[in-house]
Structures are given as C-alpha cells and as structure tokens.
Design brief:
Length: 255
C-alpha cells in the first residue's frame, strides 16, 4: 500500500512538473515577457531600472487557432510598444529591444514644430511628455521635423537621411502602410523615428502591461556588461535591495 502510494505521489509530482513547464513555455511564448528598461528615453513614464511584464499577445498577428483564445487588437495612437530594432547601420546591435510610444499610424501625416507634435494637422495633447527645462530656449535636433530642404538632421542614420525625402509631403512625414512612427516620452533624450525611421509592424513584440519591480540603476549601467561589471551589479543588488527598490512603482500599470 505504501509502495503504491509512493508511486502515485511520484507520478502526480512528475505530471505537475510537466504541466508547469508547459504553461511556462506557453506563457513566455504567447502571453508575457519580462523586460528591463536600460535607458531614460521614456522618462518619466518608464524609469531606468523598471522591470516590466510585456503583454505579447495583444498585437500578435490575428491568425491560427490561438487567435480565438486571446484578445488581439490593432495598434493605436499613444500605445507604448516594445519592438525589435532593425538597425540600418552599425550604431545598434541587431535584435535589441526598444520601448517607445506610437505617434503615427499608417497613413498619418506627422510634423513637429518647436517640439509641438502635429498628427494630421492637429496638435497632440501630450501630458506624459518630458522636456528638459535647461533646454527650454534651445532647439535641438528633432525639435523641428522633418528638416526643411537640404537641412541636415544631426544624429540621423545615413539610410534614414536617404529615405526621408521619399516620405515627405508638404513638410510632413507620411507614414507608409505597415509602418509606425514612434517617439520616446523624454523627447530631448530619445533616439527614435525622427532619427532612424519607421517601425515595421512585424517587429512589434507587445505592450508593457505593468512594472513588477523597479530598482534604482545608474544611467550608464547598460554600457557595463563585462563579467566583473555583472558581479558588481549583483553585489549592489543584494546589499541595497531594500533601499534602492522603488516600492511605490511595484505593480504600477504602464499607460
């Protein structure tokens, strides 16, 4: 009797483990993905050191049997999205994930004048946007966009400089089908569609759902990725976990 019970208990444990693994694989493949914010381009919406859960299924292609199980929808103006950046030069590693806010949908006409963003002729109300007060009297590259005539846009990739004229009409950028124009909320510190072009629909991974944990992180930490650096970061985490954790941001929804 005891032997039969042990076998049954072992089998139940094994089956539970298998189910847990299957659910974990399903969840990370179709439902949620963990993501850490490495830079300040989305401040103050997202801070360096915010750890996010990304909703992977919301923007997924609406095809196959899984489409009947999960609620998909199209991208909308103002959505914060995670996507795989596809570099056109050597400035960024292929496959690196970016987080930005959707400004222009396919067919939209986008123009920026003195940091004010206009979409289809209407100025956007952007309460989430951060501007550096120290730069209030100084226009930086991208504060007026698209550049006029032969004006050079500092910080833009060569490929985008070459392509830009083909998508400009009457001083406005026209977003092509299947593409999106995105920008960071921290406008003076964001390298975004103004400087490298559109985001293709196929590389959008999902939408940040919530911040499950936030830890005060140095602005340049993402540049330090050697083994010694990683060990130092782990030690810092262990020592300062209670004091550097931003407890008020725990489980905060991303909007």
């Amino acid at each position: 009797m005891d032997e039969a019970f042990k076998k049954s208990s072992t089998r139940d444990t094994f089956e539970s483990l298998v189910v847990t693994v299957i659910l974990a694989i399903f969840g990370t493949t179709f439902v949620l993905q963990a993501f850490k914010i490495p830079t300040g381009s989305m401040e103050d919406t997202l801070l360096i050191g915010d750890h996010l859960l990304v909703n992977k299924y919301i923007f997924a292609p609406q095809g196959g049997g899984i489409a009947h199980l999960l609620p998909y929808r199209d991208l909308r103006h103002g959505d914060v999205v995670v996507f795989k950046f596809e570099p056109t030069d050597d400035q960024t590693e292929p496959g690196e994930h970016f987080v930005k806010r959707v400004i222009g949908l396919p067919g939209d006409h986008v123009r920026i004048f003195h940091r004010k963003v206009f979409v289809n002729g209407k100025m956007l109300d952007e309460p989430h946007v951060r501007h550096d007060p120290a730069l209030a009297d100084e226009l930086r590259p991208g504060d007026d966009f698209p550049p006029m005539g032969d004006e050079y846009l500092s910080g833009a990739t060569a490929a985008w400089e070459a392509e830009m004229s083909s998508v400009v009409q009457n001083g406005e950028i026209v977003v092509p089908l299947g593409k999106y124009f995105v920008m960071g909320d921290n406008r003076e510190q964001s390298w975004d569609s103004r400087f490298w072009g559109f985001v293709d629909r196929s590389v959008v991974s999902g939408r940040p759902l919530l911040i499950y944990w936030s830890f005060e992180t140095a602005r340049d930490e993402y540049l330090h990725n050697t083994l010694i650096d990683r060990i130092g970061q782990i030690v810092d985490l262990i020592i300062h976990f209670p004091t550097k954790t931003r407890w008020r941001r725990t489980l905060k929804l991303v909007r």
